[in-house]
Design a protein that fits this description.
The complex is a heterodimer of chains A (96) and B (389). Helix content of chain A is 10%, strand content 23%. Chain A is an alpha+beta fold and 96 residues long. Chain A has a two-stranded antiparallel ribbon. In chain B, 41% of the residues lie in helices and 20% in strands. In chain B, helix 4 links the parallel strand 4 and strand 5. By secondary structure, chain B is of the alpha/beta class. The radius of gyration of chain B is 21 Å and the shape is globular. Classes of the chains: A alpha+beta (96), B alpha/beta (389). The interface between A and B is medium-sized, with 16 and 22 residues. Strand 1 of chain A pairs antiparallel with strand 9 of chain B, so a sheet runs across the interface.
């Protein structure tokens, strides 16, 4: 997870970065709570996918396939929004 | 060509000859004419500049930042409250290493509201990572406006060139203009590594920079300021070789055998030189040092200039409101510590809000410095010269 950090002499002048650099900025290590997704309970309603502010709900062939822990900050919105009858996502304490 | 020009007219002429790609500006007394005259050049087709009359100085400098990041050669002009309103963006321009040049006119910052000269406005932005060059007369203001573009683009550091409000900005002097085609010839094209408008090679400019990299980027900017003085000297040399007018980083006048020095900035340098001549005519070994380049502070040049002095009177046209006198005084004191030189120092804060300083005033300051040299004692190290008390 830890990137190799550059020395000041190695930086390009003028605070420029390649465009779209947020892809390499993995925010998953901010997380203190972690969503656990239960495939058996999930109805693929996609409400979690709509609400996730970090696009961290992974989709494969039109269905939820998991959570992208590289970016998930553990905000818990997915667990909160998952319909009460379904409850396919629960938050647990992150263990580092 | 020999002409009569005010400081503002001279700076506007320099801008016309530079023909920047973009000028975004908002007029303010006493720099109004620089922008007004330049807008006339735009209207008359004398320049091909994209002129952006902004709704405030904050917007003007913000437009300059965008244009400069796109690769344009960019200039603007302002004064006093205008620079204060630009303050936030000054740091962004320097942090992004954008070589914008401001043709600046010094005017007291409010409050009380005032339109006349002191140096409180540009000195309040001294830590913004911009070069600050204080000029003594109209010729120097004209030449330096051109020189600054080349320095800024070579060092990738923005630059502010100042004249003293009304004293230089509205005072008419004989100056020599360069030929119109000589100026672009001297400056060449601005070369850029990246452009904001290069959609085939998109970049993010000025992204969020947290604990992992902010410090490294600031360190790199500090290095830029550290390496800028040799660039200033080489551009001064190129200008001198081409046009015959040589400028120093620190201006020394009759300092060679002088025991007593006055250190000043701006037009007071010229007033002080006449005072030096008069004192010399009376057999007094006095001299004058003028900080032409104020940021970055030229420590080595300055130490060399004051090396032989027994007493230095530092004239500051602003006060730091820190109880420790003026800016120049603090800078000089700081570099002397540990240098092995300990001349007696006295700080004369003077001329706030445009209060006049005359040749006779500076002669009286020299007389006082001479008596300090004799008694080897400074009673009060910071005084407010010319205030009623």
């Amino acid at each position: 997870m830890r990137r190799q950090l550059k020395k000041w002499q190695e930086l390009p002048l003028g605070l420029t970065l390649e465009a779209g650099s947020s892809k390499i900025f993995e925010t998953g290590d901010w997380r203190s709570d972690k969503p656990i997704w239960d495939e058996d309970k999930c109805t693929n309603c996609m409400i979690c996918w709509i609400y996730c502010p970090d696009s961290a709900i992974l989709i494969k062939d039109g269905k939820v396939s998991g959570i992208d822990y590289r970016y998930c900050k553990g905000c818990g919105i997915c667990a909160e929004e998952c319909p009460p009858k379904v409850k396919a996502i629960k938050m647990v304490r992150e263990e580092k | 060509m020999i002409v009569a020009r005010t400081g503002n007219e001279a700076m506007a002429e320099a801008m016309r000859q530079i023909n920047p790609d973009v000028v975004a500006a908002y007029p303010i007394t006493p720099a109004t004419e620089v922008v007004q005259l330049f807008s006339t050049f735009v209207h008359d087709g004398k320049v091909t500049t994209e002129f952006v009359p902004a709704e405030s100085e904050h917007s003007a400098i913000s437009a300059c930042v965008g244009a400069s990041a796109a690769g344009a050669r960019v200039m603007t002009s302002t004064s006093s409250q205008g620079l204060a309103l630009m303050h936030e963006i000054l740091f962004i321009a320097s942090g992004l290493r954008l070589p914008i040049v401001i043709c600046f006119v010094n005017r007291a910052l409010s409050s009380p509201i005032n339109i006349h000269c002191d140096h409180s406005d540009s000195l309040a932005s001294r830590d913004s990572g911009w070069l600050q060059i204080f000029t003594e007369n109209t010729q120097e203001a004209y030449d330096t406006s051109i020189i600054a573009v080349k320095i800024a683009e070579r060092a990738l550091v923005p630059a502010l060139v100042t004249t003293d409000g009304f004293i230089l900005s509205h005072g008419m002097e004989r100056i020599e203009l360069l030929d119109d085609d000589a100026v672009p010839g001297f400056l060449g094209e601005r070369k850029v590594a990246n452009s904001l408008l290069d959609v085939d090679n998109p970049l993010t400019y000025g992204p969020l920079d947290l604990q992992d990299y902010f410090y490294e980027h600031k360190r790199s900017q500090i290095e830029a300021m550290d390496t800028v003085l040799p660039i200033i000297e080489s551009v001064h040399k190129e200008f001198g070789e081409r046009f015959g007018r040589y400028y120093p980083v620190v201006d020394e006048y009759e300092t060679e055998d002088a025991d007593i020095l006055v250190l000043a900035m701006g037009s007071t340098g010229g007033t002080g030189k006449v005072a030096v001549d008069r004192m010399r005519a009376k057999g007094k070994k006095v001299g004058l040092v003028r900080a032409r380049v104020y940021r970055p502070f030229p420590a080595a040049h300055m130490l060399k200039a004051v090396a032989r002095a027994k007493v230095v009177g530092v004239l500051d046209r602003a006060d730091t409101l820190s109880t420790r006198g003026g800016h120049l005084y603090n800078d000089l004191r700081s570099i002397l510590y540990g240098s092995g030189k300990q001349p007696l120092l006295k700080n004369y804060v003077y001329g706030l809000g445009g209060r006049d300083i005359s040749i006779e005033d500076i002669e009286s300051i020299f007389d006082e410095l001479i008596s300090i040299g004799k008694s080897n004692k400074v009673d009060r190290d910071i005084v407010y010269y010319g205030v009623r008390e």
